[in-house]
Amino acid sequence: MIHPFSESIPPSRRIPYHQARNATYMLQRRDEGSWDGSQTALAEYNPTIVPLTDEWDADLKNAITGGDPNVRYIQTARASNLHQCGNVVMRKQRGSGAAREHSYLVLTLLDQDL
């Protein structure tokens, strides 16, 4: 990992990095559910870091950064409780049980140190 996790996912809902390939752990977290029926654990997928250069439209850049000159990059990712990557067990569980799929857009503003 070359950058810290986004703060947009509460630690209580994050899948720990060291458990990311542990299907047993993932399914256990899935079965826990939560008050709104969603799965407890979320993971970030496909993070992308884009530099906010002078080529950006000035109004758009200002709207994104709030005018903060320290913001140099924007990170985007998808946070979800389900995935389709490689693990057949997780694919078979899609849509079963009390939990339902939730996906969120993650946006993180980063300074020059990322």
Structure description:
The chain is an alpha+beta fold and 114 residues long. The chain is 21% helix and 22% strand. It has three helices and three strands. It has a three-stranded antiparallel β-sheet with strand order 1-2-3, with no helix packed on it. The mean pLDDT is 75.
Please give a handful of descriptors for the protein shown.
single chain; 114 residues; alpha+beta; three-stranded antiparallel beta sheet; 3 helices
User: What is the structural class?
Assistant: alpha+beta
Beta-strand fraction estimate: 15-25%
What is the N-to-C succession of helices and strands?
HEHEHE
Per DSSP, the total helix count is: 3
Shape field: elongated
Uncertain stretches of 5 or more adjacent residues: none
The whole-angstrom Rg is: 17 Å
Spatial strand order of the main sheet: 1-2-3
Mean pLDDT across the residues is 75
Largest sheet features: 3 strands, antiparallel
User: What multimeric state do the chains show?
Assistant: single chain
Taking the alpha carbons of the first and last residues, their distance comes to 12 Å
Kindly state the percentage of residues in helix. Answer: 10-25%
Number of strands: 3
Task: Set down the secondary structure blueprint.
Layout: H1 23-32, E1 43-51, H2 58-65, E2 73-80, H3 88-93, E3 103-110
Antiparallel strand pairs: 1-2, 2-3
Characterize this entry briefly.
With 114 residues, the chain is α+β, with helices and mostly antiparallel strands.
